[in-house]
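In this supplementary section we document a worked example of the pipeline. Step one takes a protein sequence of length 251 as its only input; no multiple sequence alignment statistics are reported here. Step two produces a three-dimensional model, which step three serialises into structure tokens for compact storage. The input and output of this example are shown verbatim.
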Amino acid sequence: MDRKIRVGAVSYLNTRPLLYGIENSPVMAQMDLTLQYPSKLAAQLQEDEIDLGLVPVAVIPLLPEHHIYTDYCIGSKGPVASVCIFSDVPISEVKKVLMDYQSRTSVKLAGILLKEYWQVGPVIENTTEDYRSRIHEMTAGLVIGDRALEMRGKTKYIYDLGEAWEMHTGLPFVFAAWVSNKALPEDFIEAFNEANKEGLGRIDELVMELSYAPFDLKAYYSRHISYSFNDEKKMGLELFLSKLKNSSITR
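The serialised model returned by step three reads:
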């Protein structure tokens, strides 16, 4: 390419190990890096404002062309901790679920799990601004990212979507992957993949640099977020994308 590659990543704590490697790698010289919340990144990839993004995987069917690059993703095998439905009452008693405006994949995943796993049919309300103060009594809310870690302990019930997906399907879940809307140079992808790997090898160093009281980041990075985009994750992703075809969630 005759210009720098435009790369977008999620501005959440869960991406910090990957970004730590990228930002400290020579590959940065080949990139223009921007940070955004997930649904905004997905829109930027659709509109060709970025070439490669760590984007919610629900955007994949909406792209005329896509390539999934690197051996790494934002995934989970069991509880993910930062993608949860918070509620004051059991899920069977919830009348309304507020959906996170920063999400795309998580909203669709929540819709699938509410119908198939919990077998409930609450009213779904999409949001456009901070809605967490409205999570009260029979109104629950899907909250993702750092805000979900900060919500823990504020409601009686927490329904972890990573855990529910594994219980429902027996497979891990992929929330975001490095997806491009065009073919990219092989030498860049090789260096970019190596930078991701390098960052994951320096988690202890990263945790020492970060200060975050709401949650144990070492546990978050080692037990909740699963970064390897392996064959089992690819199976989980394929199943999720197939379920999207039958989902009534439009966001």
